[in-house]
Structures are given as structure tokens and as C-alpha cells.
From TrEMBL:
It comes from the Bacteria. PROSITE patterns: ALDOKETO_REDUCTASE_1, ALDOKETO_REDUCTASE_2, ALDOKETO_REDUCTASE_3. Keywords: NADP, Oxidoreductase. Residues 29-262 form the NADP-dependent oxidoreductase domain. This is Aldo/keto reductase. Pfam families: Aldo_ket_red. InterPro entries: AKR, AKR5G, Aldo/ket_reductase_CS, NAD(P)_OxRdtase_dom_sf, NADP_OxRdtase_dom. It comes from Fictibacillus iocasae. Belongs to the aldo/keto reductase family.
Amino acid sequence: MAMSIHDRTVLHNGVKMPWLGLGVYKAEEGEQVERAIQHALHAGYRSIDTAKLYENEHGVGKAVRESGIPREEIFVTTKLWNTDQGYESALTAFNESLEKLQLNYVDLYLIHWPVANKYKESWRALEEIYRQGKAKAIGVSNFTISQLEDLMSSANVKPMINQVEFHPYLTQKELLAYCSEQGIQLEAWRPLVKGDILQEPVLLKIAEQHSKTAAQVVLRWNLQCGVVTIPKSVNKNRIRENAEIFDFKLSPEEMQAIDGLNRNQRNGADPENFDF
């Protein structure tokens, strides 16, 4: 079945989330992030991914509010930072994020990293936020299978999303299969590996065959893996280019060739061993 930029995956609680979103990590608060979101919304994006850590929630909320697009059509994600983990502190941090966004609710709230001995208490807070309707969906980011199993051993609500580093150098097949079995939607951050992957001969060859760029091939591979993708850019042309991934399809052989680039190579921190 053909996909379009308007297509959404259905999370296990029935909430619909766009397959493609705009990441705004390191987009500067104010004019830069607001303009990037304007470009994205104009190009058809309906999902924006921010976090307390990014220090641009105010600009994200402003761009969403002033877009002229009905609030219910735009999917807004933000995240709980590590220093705010715990039950009461997570509730406080969420309310601070909502205040900065100046929105009545967020569509998705995530625990940003699995801080040992704290993420279960944080999850209790997210369950309360979800119960109150202040977040339409809740989930985690950077959780391994063992961390998900540990979290779910005491959870009342199963995470709807696990947002992780996912790209052709880190294909995470076991995690993808586990999340699929559990009904947890996997979402890719830094899908283009800061651009490092875009000179890969395998990708360039496939791109040439489809009259596409290597970046478009990687993002299309994400979608065909069943993974939500949120490439980050503040560049108008690149934002548009990243959205032009719905008019072609990779063959099984091309998907297999891209899978073959896996090196189990992380660009970011290891969820089992980080110190921030």
C-alpha cells in the first residue's frame, strides 16, 4: 500500500502518530526553531519532537499555536530530562514543559533516558499525567529490552513508544522485533547519523536508481522497517527533501543491502552505560 506524509501509525492505545516528524535538537530557541517548524508544517509535517534538554519548548509551542493549523492535527512530543527523574520531580518538570509550550496537553511525553533506580518512579508520574489527559500517549527513549522488561514488571500502562538511536549502522533488529511483539512503536532519533552515513556507496547506488538522495533512502528504509522517523534540520530545502520519501519504495533486496550496513555502532551514548 502506498504511503503519504499524512499517514499515521496507530499506537496501542489508539492514538495516531505521524510516521514522519521534525526533530529540533540543537535548534536555537526563538526565530530559528520557529522558522524550522513553519517550513516543516508548510511541507506537510504534522509531528514535532522536542525535549526539556533542547531548551526550545517555548519556540516550539509558539510555532504550533501560531501555525493556523488546528491543534489536534499537530503531534507534539517532549521529554523528561534525567535530573528531573523521580515521581514528584517528574510531575513538576512536566508542568514546567507544558507552561513553556503554552499548550493544554502534549501528544507524547517520554522518559528521555533510563536513569537507574529512578525510571520506575518517573514512569508512575507519566502514568498519572496520562490518566489526567495531559499527555495523549506516554513512552520512553533509549530503553533496551531488559530495561523495558524491568519497567513493565511494575507498570500499569505499557509504554506506547520507545524512541532510540536507529540507523543503518545500528539496525537494532532484536529491539525492533521485541517492541513489535509488545505493541510498542519504535521511533528513530538521529536517523541520518549527523550525515556521516550519506557517502556510503550502497546508499548512493540505491539512491541513484530511484533518483533520490542517500538521506531519502535512509528515511524510506526507516519507514519500511516500521519505524517512525524524526530527522532534524533547520534548513528549509532539507526539511522539504526529507519529506519527499513517500513516492518511491525500496525493494526487498535493497532493504537487505541496507540492513547489511549494520555495525552495531552507536553515535550517541550507550543506554546501559551513561553518566548524565
